Amino acid sequence: MDPEIAEKYASWCRSIVVEASAPSPLLAKACEELVGGIGSMLGRMPLAGGTADHGRCVLLCAGNSSKLHGVVEAAELEALGEEGYVLRTAGEPGRPFVAIAGHTDRGALYGAFHFLRLLQTGQNLNELNIIEKPAAKLRMINHWDNMDGSVERGYAGRSIFYRDGKIVTDRKRIHDYARMMAAVGLNAIAINNVNVHETETNLITSELLPSVAAVADIFRAYGVRLYLSVNFASPIQYGGLTTADPLDPEVRRFWAERAADVYRHIPDFGGFLVKADSEFRPGPFTYGRDHADGANMLAEALRPYGGIVVWRCFVYDCLQDWRDRKTDRARAAFDHFRPLDGKFADNVILQIKNGPMDFQVREPASPLFGGLRHTNQVLELQITQEYTGQQKHLCFLIPQWKEILDFDTYARGEGSTVSKAATGELFGRPLGGIAAVSNIGDDANWTGHLLAQANYYGYGRLVWRPELTAEQIADEWTRITFGHDPAVVSTIRRMLLDSWTIYENYTSPLGVGWMVNPGHHYGPNVDGYEYSKWGTYHYADCHGIGVDRTVKSGTGYTGQYHDKVASRFESIESCPDELLLFFHHVPYTHVLKSGKTVIQHIYDTHFEGAEQVDKLVDVWRGLEGRIDGDRYASVLSRLQEQSKHAKEWRDVINSYFLRKSGIADEQGRTIY
Ligand code: GCW
To answer: Where is the Glycosyl hydrolase family 67 C-terminal domain (predicted)?
Structure first.
């Protein structure tokens, strides 16, 4: 830290006074974090455990304390709820102190991390008055980690949890990770892949539960609850039954026993995360039952212990015939789950992917948001960059997530945003929140691409406070990671903020998606999924491109939205350019609102996108010597790969459409 800034904070941070009505491990952690964080930033360890009487100090409080009198009133404290906190400068002139106060120890822990963030970002402590409460109750991370150590869609090394079919015994990395989660405000984690394979099915058994419990202990110390993904067919695979029918009494008994066993080992276990009847995973359909039957059966098993079922809505026909033009994968989640609205138990939460397809670079919001009124729901985002450059390319996803959260469903008139639907506020649901697929692995820098850390960090910040702007988050992360050199901050901030648009420019145009190599999903392949069974088509021919999802002449998908939204997407005139090909099939000569034809837009954005990546390389080079050599070099090499690859995208996409359409580029640039 800059010595001048360090000096500014030194007097405040000489000692930390801790106040609680009862001993609390979380508060102890909060204090430990303050001591360690302040010590490493200022180069001087604060004293912990003193009294507030020696001048300036940091006062860390959980619950009411006489030291808070006249600083934070009891009612205000109580209004903070389970997780909120106040940061306030108080005290007599000459002897001011900063109070970090939560109604609970968990609130105090989040407050402590906020305080450290203030120091890292160089804020003034003289007149603090910050009151924070998280917008979302459940702030969850899903790990798609397998016990062989692989991570499905992982681009940052191997799993930090498993090796060779077992939970790792050296748990230092898990411990660091738990701290990191708490530091960004997250409170729930599912530690195994939603595709639950054979070995992982046994995570809920007596053999493996002791080591799962040891991992849960690590997370508990930082206020994070542990969840497990379960295999719907466990009663068959592990229980020796011949069925997994959710209405079968033996099956119900099986799950009740498993739940009891899990809670014997992990008293505060969060619950089960379930992918059922999706991409070859077993589910209730096999037995002629619906998803409410399946989810409620598990919910009943968990209810006595306060556990919840997080049930995914990613259900669609993955064996579609591409010749069948009526079936539309985008419709599937709504068609399956909307009729079940109100049929789910109170401790079930439906987890809904942000868009109706699958984490493409651009999709409209899922119509289930605003479509479900009587069902708890969480929004599912993907931090791991499966379709957005796989952490080889720079793609800061916060602007995309902001658009999703701010998307107005009009379910209860204007202002009925996805954010409010997901948190439960819109329909007064007791449970709600946001979940996201992790982008971390055992790479030294956690995320492979160093700058991809900003996505994890930003995810945590955004689910805590959805009204934060992408600019604020980019700025914060950059300062925390690289310090305050104005050239460094402004360059990296700009790079982050522009990166999603740049990525979109050189990849699939106008919301159409899916032009990637099948299987691993890296790199361009325009027809890679065009004649496949996955229901992901663009229908490009020599005349035009796009999927007609209108009610009038297409699949009727637009009709799943509330009127105001439905009519905006239904009409070509009002459909936003960036989603045009998601909703409409148009000729290449169709003129966009931008004034360009579709074909010219494709050419222009692809040339522009590739050039923009070259500029990213250039501006990054401008930082040489301003940041440490290792981090500089590692980002540079990723950007160079991106630049090469963006040209591959540009040339494949442009050549494909030139050949299909026979329409030349107005600017006569080289297309192959
Ligand atoms: O996007 C697809 C991924 C699968 C993933 C699936 C899902 C975990 O390609 O790898 O499986 O979504 O979300 O279930």
So the answer is: 447-669
Give the integer Cα–Cα distance in Å for 419 and 369. 9
Element (H, E) at 226: strand 225-229
State how far the Cα of 661 lies from the Cα of 509, in Å rounded to an integer.
15
Q: From ligand 1's centre to the CA of 353, what distance in Å?
A: 11
Instruction: Spot the catalytic one: 105, 132, 245, 358.
Output: 358
For residue 195, give both structure tokens. 């595709």
Six-digit token string for 671: 């297309």
Question: Quick check: is 386 catalytic?
Answer: yes
Higher pLDDT, 608 or 52: 608
Burial class (CB in 10 A: 0-12, 13-18, 19+), 660: middle
pLDDT digits (tens, 9 = 90+) for 64-80: 888 899 999 999 999 99
Q: State how far the Cα of 215 lies from the Cα of 258, in Å rounded to an integer.
A: 18
Selected catalytic residue, list 83, 386, 548, 604: 386
- Whether residue 624 lies in the annotated active site: no
0.90 surpassed by pTM: yes
CB neighbours of 529 closer than 8 A, spacing ≥ 6? 514, 515, 516, 518, 536, 537
* Distance separating alpha carbons of residues 422 and 618, to the nearest angstrom: 40
| pLDDT for residue 4 is more than 80 | no
Distance 485 CA to ligand 1 centre (A): 40
Question: Tokens for 52?
Answer: 């507030």
Q: Each residue of 93-149: pLDDT tens digit? A: 778 899 999 999 999 999 999 999 999 999 999 899 999 999 999 999 999 999 999
CA dist 424 and 429 (Å) reads 4
Q: What is the ipTM of this complex?
A: 0.99
The sign of the CA dihedral 280, 281, 287, 292 is negative
| Ligand 1 center–CA 97 separation, angstroms | 50
- Single-letter amino acid, residue 143: H
To 10 degrees, what angle do helices 172-183 and 209-220 make?
40
All residues at 6 or more sequence positions from 159 whose CB lies less than 8 Å from its CB, including other chains: 143, 145, 146, 149, 150, 151, 441, 442
Nearest-atom number in ligand 1 for the CA of 387 is: 1
Buried/exposed code over 33-46 (b: 16+ C-beta within 10 A; e: otherwise): bbbebbeebbeeeb
Atom of ligand 1 nearest to the CA of 152: 10
Kindly provide the residue ranges of all beta strands, DSSP E only, lying in 275-375, ordered along the sequence: 308-312, 348-353
Centre of ligand 1 from the C-alpha of residue 368, in Å: 19
Is 279 in the active site? yes
List of domains in the chain:
3-132 (3.30.379.10), 138-468 (3.20.20.80)
Give residue 639's pLDDT: 98
Which residues on neighbouring strands pair with residue 586, listed in sequence order? 545
For CA atoms 293, 296, 297, 298, give the dihedral sign.
positive
Write out residues with Cβ below 6 Å of ligand 1: 144, 152-153, 194-195, 275, 279, 314, 358-359, 386
> Token pair for residue 599?
């074909």
- Report the DSSP beta bridge partners of residue 350: 311, 377
In three-state secondary structure terms, 262 is helix
Q: What is the DSSP letter of 185?
A: T
